[in-house]
Amino acid sequence: MTTDTQTTVRRRFTLVALVIPVVVTVIAVVAQALLAIRVPATVATHWGWSGAPDGFAPAWSVPLATVLIGIGLPAVLFAATVGGLRRGDHGAAYRVLGAVALGIAVLVGALGAATLGIQVGRTDAAVTLPVLLIPTVLLAAVGAGLLGWAMQPHVPWRSSPAGAAVDVPVRAGERVVWLQGVSLARAGAVVLWVAFGVGCLAVVPVLFLGDLVPAVIASVVVVVLFVVVATTLRFHVRVDPEGLTAVSAAGWPRVHVPSDDIVSAEVVEVSPMEEFGGWGIRWSSGGRQGVVLRRGEGLLVRRRDGRTLTVTVDDAATAAGLLNAYTALTPDPQRD
C-alpha cells in the first residue's frame, strides 16, 4: 500500500470516527439545550414495553449524557486505534469502528433530542412514548453508520511473512520445551476495559428500575464482560512434543493443537484489528483462529484440515522451528 493511500485511510477514519461525531454531538447538545428550557425540571428518560414512562432524571442530564457518550466513546475508540493506523495498519475492522463511532453519535444525539422534544410544553413527565420514535432513531443511526462505512476507502489487509523459522535439531525420543508469555497490548486493554465500563454504566439505571429480569440479564452481561477482560490480559504459550498450547494466565481459556494435527509452522506479521477484528481469542473467515494480544511477530500453525492458529508471541521463529521438528518426527495418521 502506498503512502498516499495510507494517508487517505487515516484521514477518512479521523473524519468519520472523530470529527463528524463531535460535530453531530455539538449540534445535538445545542438543540437539547434549547428544548430543555421548555420541558419540566424532571423528565422521563426510560419507558416500559407499554409505552408508559418508568425512569426519570433531571432535564439537564440528557445533554450531559449526550456529551459523555456521543463524544466520549468515539474519542476513546479513536485514541485506541489511531496509533495502529499511523504504523500502517488498515482493513475492514477500522471501517467498522469508524462507522460505529458515527452511528453512536447520531443515536445518542437524536435520542436525547427526541426524548426532550416529546415533553416540550408539559407540566409533568407522564408522557407516553410514540410508537415510531425508537425505530426512527435506530434507522437514522444505522444510516449514519452505513454512510460512515462508505466514506472510508476499501483497502484490505494482506499479511506478510515476518521472518524464517529457526532450525531446531531434535532427535527422536528427545524432549525439548519452549515457553513464552505474551500480554495484552495497551490499545486492546483500553478497548476491553472501556467496554466493561460502559457495560457497568448501562447496568446502573436498570438496577434502579426495580425490574428483576432486566437487572439479572444486565448483571450477567457485566460479569461476562469482566471474565472476557480478566482472561485476556496475559497468555502463556508452550511448545513441546505434544504440540502447541496457549492458555490464559487465569487458567482458562485454553487452546491446544496436537503435534499429529500440525502440517507446518511459520513466522508471520500479525495485525489483530485487520486480520481478526480485535484482540483476544478470535475467529475469522477461512477457518482461521487467533490468540492475538498485540501487533507484530506471531506464530502461524497450519492444521491438517486446512484450519490455522495464529499466536502473537516473541521468539516465534524458535517456536516454529521446534514445532516443525516435532512434526517431522510425528507419524502422519493419514499414511498409517
Number of helices: 9
Largest sheet: 6 strands, mixed
Our estimate of the beta-strand percent is 15-25%
The count of strands amounts to: 12
Q: How do the SSEs run, as a string of H and E?
A: HEEHHHHEEHHEEEEHEEEEH
Low-confidence stretches: none
Percent helix, as a range, is 40-55%
Average pLDDT level: 86
Class by alpha and beta content: alpha+beta
Fill in the keyword field for this structure:
single chain; 336 residues; alpha+beta; PH-domain like; 6-stranded mixed sheet; 4-stranded antiparallel sheet; 12 strands; 21% strand; elongated
3D architecture notes:
By secondary structure, the protein is α+β, with helices and mostly antiparallel strands. It folds into 3 domains: 3-158, no CATH class; 161-183 and 234-329, PH-domain like; 185-231. It is built from 9 helices and 12 strands. The chain has helices at 3-36, 61-70, 72-86, 92-117, 133-151, 186-209, 212-230, 272-276, 316-329, and strands spanning 42-47, 53-58, 161-163, 178-183, 234-240, 243-248, 254-258, 262-270, 280-284, 288-292, 296-303, 308-312. The strands form 3 sheets. Strands 3-8-11-12-10-9 form a 6-stranded mixed β-sheet. A 4-stranded antiparallel β-sheet has the order 4-5-6-7, covered by helices on one side.
